[in-house]
Each structure stands twice: as structure tokens, then as C-alpha cells.
Amino acid sequence: MIEVNNPCTEEQNVPAVNYRKLVLLAGFASVATAISLILMKAAVWFFSGSSTILASLTDSLIDCCASFINLLALRFALTPADKDHRFGHYKAEALAALTQAAFISGSSILLIVHGFERLQHPEVIGYIDAAIIVTTLSLLITVCLVSFQSYVYKKTSSEAINADRYHYLSDILLNVGVVASLILSRFNFAWADGLFTVILGFYILHSAYHIGKTAIATLLDKSMPPAENAKLMALILGIDGVLSLHDLKTRQAGPHTFIQCHIVLDGNMPLTKAHKIASEAENAIKIRYPDSDITIHMEPDTDDTYKDVEFMDEASCPISPERYNQIKDKNGETNC
């Protein structure tokens, strides 16, 4: 079975209360970091006039706006479900991530244009030593923030925190590029300032694509990875009395996992026993996904049950070869 790097597995088993504390703490840390970096970079750019420092400052300004929007979205997303939003508000995180992608795309395009202009008309950079020191300090602060965000994302799989984390990961490379550009400029390679600005602009644009793609997948209720669905199938089929399952559908929003499927049971068993088996399946799923919303439909083991079954991710519904041949002989080809 293929293993997928999916943090929404055993490591994510974080209660909703802890989820709220961690993501809000990460959100406040992001805003505070962005404000600090803006103040430092603005002072250095004012004295040096460096294009790459301006690129870094622009990115920090966008970071601050995006992080603030992220924080507001997180507070809304963590609002309990109400009568108008029975599934909760967690998709607000994906909307925040999509907003970040738009912000980042706009800033990266501006940086690319500015970089090309500086390539055509190189300028001498002043106060290079101070610029290198401040940029290195910014790099260290950003590394600390990303480390904390990575910890929070590992524990919660918050999409908004991941988008913010990915953005600041690009900042680390951006600051490395700024330092390299300043060092080259110190040795009279004036073209380096504009060149690194263009390169970093394209890299940030790539980051925006990744964030936007992930957010859209969540908004469109993308299923969990096939390998994770396969593990979920094995978990349900391991319950004594479950003969087969089909029509498995999964999606995630914030800390919640939504799971629904049809399980096939012996049609002659009492309803109370069938309900007990379904409850055992739900409890087994809850152990793996504590904050999950589970819907299990019970069906009898009859030929009609297998006529129009579906399973997402192009997997087959697990039934025995003997049962498959019985159904095929009576009904023709089946989707199982």
C-alpha cells in the first residue's frame, strides 16, 4: 500500500479545544512577526534603497495583511456550528488561504516588474552592511516562526496555518536571496539586486499557486488521499459482522473529518445487532479521527445491494470472489 504524507492521521488526534488554542496562538505569532519585520526592513530600505530589500519589505507588508486576514478567518472558523451552519464554519480557513494566494500573486507580479526595471537601470546600494545584518536577523526570526507553525500544523492540519506557513517558508528563501544579492552588490555586481528580485518574485508566485490549489481543493470537498481511504476501509471491514462496504465518501474541513459509507450486513440479523455493528464501526473510526462526523448506512447482503454501488478513488468494493461471481451471473457486470 502506498504511504501518503498526510498529517491528518494518527498525529492529528488533537481535541477541538487544543486545536483552537494552537491555531489562534500561531495566528497571533504570525501577525506579531510580520509587524516586527516590516519595521526593520522599512528602516533599512529607507537608507539603502535596495531593490531586493524593497522586495522583502513588500512581501512582509503582504504577509502582515494576509496574516491579519488569516487571524480573523480563524476566529470565525472556530465559531461553533449554528442553525444556519450545521457543519460548522471551518471552510473559512480555506477562504482565508485563497485570499492569501490572491495577495501573494499580486505582490509577486509587482516584484517581477520592479526587478526587470532594476536590471535595466542598476543603482548603487547604500548601507549594505546594515542591510545584511537586518536581513539576517529577519531570516532567523522567520525560521523561528516557521518552526512553530510547522509544529501547530503537524498537530492540527489547519489549512489556514499551513498557507501562512508556506508563505513564510518562501520568505526564508527570499531573505537568503536578499543576503546573497546584497553581498554581490557589495562587490560591485549591481545587476544582482534586480536579478534576485525577479527570481524571488517568480518563486513567490509559485507559492501562491500551491496555496490557492490546496484551498480550492478543500472548498470543492476533495476526498482524502486514496491510501487514507484504503486504511479507513480496512478499519471498517475489520469489524466482525461487516461483509462489505461501498459508496465511501470522505472530506475534511479544519479539524473535522466527514465520513459516510454503506456497509453490507447479514440481512437476517436483528436490527439491534445490526445497529451494534454499525456503532462498533463508528467507535473504531472515532479512535483514528476523534473529531469526525460519521454517517453509516446499513444494507442487507442481497443481489440488489450491489447493482449500482460506487467507490471513490477508483477502488473496488471489497467482496469475496464467490459473491462477485454470484452477482455477475445474475445481474451481469457490476461496479465492484
TrEMBL record:
<dbReference type="InterPro" id="IPR027469">
    <property type="entry name" value="Cation_efflux_TMD_sf"/>
</dbReference>
<keyword id="KW-0813">Transport</keyword>
<keyword id="KW-0862">Zinc</keyword>
<keyword id="KW-0812">Transmembrane</keyword>
<dbReference type="GO" id="GO:0015341">
    <property type="term" value="F:zinc efflux antiporter activity"/>
</dbReference>
<comment type="similarity">
    <text>Belongs to the cation diffusion facilitator (CDF) transporter (TC 2.A.4) family. FieF subfamily.</text>
</comment>
<dbReference type="InterPro" id="IPR050291">
    <property type="entry name" value="CDF_Transporter"/>
</dbReference>
<keyword id="KW-0864">Zinc transport</keyword>
<keyword id="KW-0472">Membrane</keyword>
<feature type="transmembrane region" description="Helical">
    <location>
        <begin position="22"/>
        <end position="47"/>
    </location>
</feature>
<dbReference type="InterPro" id="IPR027470">
    <property type="entry name" value="Cation_efflux_CTD"/>
</dbReference>
<feature type="transmembrane region" description="Helical">
    <location>
        <begin position="195"/>
        <end position="212"/>
    </location>
</feature>
<feature type="domain" description="Cation efflux protein cytoplasmic">
    <location>
        <begin position="225"/>
        <end position="300"/>
    </location>
</feature>
<feature type="transmembrane region" description="Helical">
    <location>
        <begin position="168"/>
        <end position="189"/>
    </location>
</feature>
<feature type="transmembrane region" description="Helical">
    <location>
        <begin position="53"/>
        <end position="73"/>
    </location>
</feature>
<dbReference type="InterPro" id="IPR036837">
    <property type="entry name" value="Cation_efflux_CTD_sf"/>
</dbReference>
<dbReference type="GO" id="GO:0015086">
    <property type="term" value="F:cadmium ion transmembrane transporter activity"/>
</dbReference>
<feature type="transmembrane region" description="Helical">
    <location>
        <begin position="125"/>
        <end position="148"/>
    </location>
</feature>
<keyword id="KW-0410">Iron transport</keyword>
<dbReference type="InterPro" id="IPR058533">
    <property type="entry name" value="Cation_efflux_TM"/>
</dbReference>
<feature type="transmembrane region" description="Helical">
    <location>
        <begin position="94"/>
        <end position="113"/>
    </location>
</feature>
<dbReference type="GO" id="GO:0006882">
    <property type="term" value="P:intracellular zinc ion homeostasis"/>
</dbReference>
<dbReference type="GO" id="GO:0015093">
    <property type="term" value="F:ferrous iron transmembrane transporter activity"/>
</dbReference>
<keyword id="KW-1003">Cell membrane</keyword>
<keyword id="KW-0408">Iron</keyword>
<keyword id="KW-1133">Transmembrane helix</keyword>
<keyword id="KW-0406">Ion transport</keyword>
<feature type="domain" description="Cation efflux protein transmembrane">
    <location>
        <begin position="28"/>
        <end position="220"/>
    </location>
</feature>
<protein>
    <submittedName>
        <fullName>Cation diffusion facilitator family transporter</fullName>
    </submittedName>
</protein>
<dbReference type="Pfam" id="PF01545">
    <property type="entry name" value="Cation_efflux"/>
</dbReference>
<dbReference type="GO" id="GO:0005886">
    <property type="term" value="C:plasma membrane"/>
</dbReference>
<dbReference type="Pfam" id="PF16916">
    <property type="entry name" value="ZT_dimer"/>
</dbReference>
<dbReference type="InterPro" id="IPR002524">
    <property type="entry name" value="Cation_efflux"/>
</dbReference>
